Amino acid sequence: MHDLQEYLLPINKATLNDDNEYNDGQYGTVIQMNEGYLPDLEEVDLVFIGIEEYRGAGFIPKENAANAIRKQFFRLHHWHKNIQIADLGNVRSGSSIQDSYSAAKMVIDELIRSKKIVVVLGGSHDNTMAQYLAYKGLERIIEATVIDAKIDLKSNNPLPDENFLMEMLTSEPNIVKHYNHIGFQSYLVHPQILEAIDKLRFDCYRVGTAKENIEEMEPIIRNSDLVSFDISAIKNSDAPASIYSPNGFTGEEACNLTRYAGMSPVLSSIGFYNYDVSKDVNDLTAMQIAQMLWYFVDGRSRGKHEVDLNDMNNYNRFHTAFAEVDTVFLQSKRTGRWWMQLPNKKLIACSYNDYVQASHNEIPERWLRTQERDV
Known about the structure:
By secondary structure, this protein is of the alpha/beta class. Helix content is about 35%, strand content about 20%. The longest helix has 20 residues, at about 285-305.
């Protein structure tokens, strides 16, 4: 691994805890931190990095969002002994937004190459581009999922925070095999944006649809290499710094979504964006994000117990047919999760409802959409 210290600002642990000490079992006692030198990452599963770049949203914050989140997360109790975490501090902001992207991209790229899962804290939502550019540098084709009340495809808006998806989804060469958008609120999105995304065979899920069937979001996130979570997807009453809408996911639903991300066997980076400390009330949004992180770690711990799909002794196997198509469904005996087989024998993540539909001779929409993209 290249020396990343030049791109990173160390953590001043004393500023994160008013009492300057943590109780036994709290994360502040077990996380390896960059306090002037990088910790040994050999046995580490998850690596946190902070981002301070908000110029893409049109402002420069007075307070550090990543540190505010750390302050709350480090107080939570460490239940998952099989997950080791390191925190490398905050990425140095550049003289331009592009410089900041490049620095974050360099760090994320190196960590993914080292087979670490990267957790990005803070920054405006356009910093998702740093995540994306890391995979582009790796020349890795990915599936990406964004959780956001809006869809940032406003080409007529000069702020990157409002239009970064245009470059991410349409630039050439492009590495996004598939894109999912979870939690958009219709009144915040122009209908033409949805039409454009549908023409690309990408999938969008309204917040109401996701809330009614939150478990149906798990297979979507399970297939994702990159997840980007804008806190505007959470209702204002549960995350006061989320100022775009009084509606959205509850805090508990947001925790469920991040647990699903942690359980993904392919996910290698997740970002938590658009937290503005100055708009928070009693640190409630920082607490919310910290608890989402806790559930992400919980999901990662659970996902480690999943068995390889080739080990049939640990899966229930169901043969069924719909619309004259014979297929196979697998259910994990350990986690209860489901997969279904496509005509090319490829297995994709699915839900129990997909199996029920197929059993009633109905074509599961997930199967159909995947087939349309693969043709």
